[in-house]
Amino acid sequence: QVQLVESGGGLVQAGGSLRLSCAASGRTFSSYVMGWFRQAPGKEREFVAAISRSGGSTYYAESVKGRFTISRDNAKNTVYLQMNSLKPEDTAVYYCAAKGLASVVADGPAGPKYDYWGQGIQVTVSS
Length: 127
Known about the structure:
Blueprint: E1 4-7, E2 10-13, E3 18-24, E4 33-39, E5 46-51, E6 58-60, E7 68-73, E8 78-83, E9 92-99, H1 101-107, E10 116-117, E11 121-126
Parallel strand pairs: 2-11
Antiparallel strand pairs: 1-3, 3-8, 4-5, 4-9, 5-6, 7-8, 9-10, 9-11
């Protein structure tokens, strides 16, 4: 079992920045691909970014490429999402998720088949 707790959300003006953190429980954090998803009101949850177990490979949705950066610190059991040049359309509840090897094999690091999810954290970007 992996428990995930997000932090760092809040209200920011368009053009501003936020950094989300996701702290994971357990001693096997480095064995999971980690991802961030988001869900805006009235919309389906969508992939934002993912990072490989070592941190050597990253994946981004086209809508955030060049503005968001995912990173991880396996010594601290934490994954981050640095969000720059935020836009009102980035407003959503952001979820951290962990994907085990079997799920990676099933649909890749950017696919929706993640095994563990955080409770989500609100990010609101005002215009």
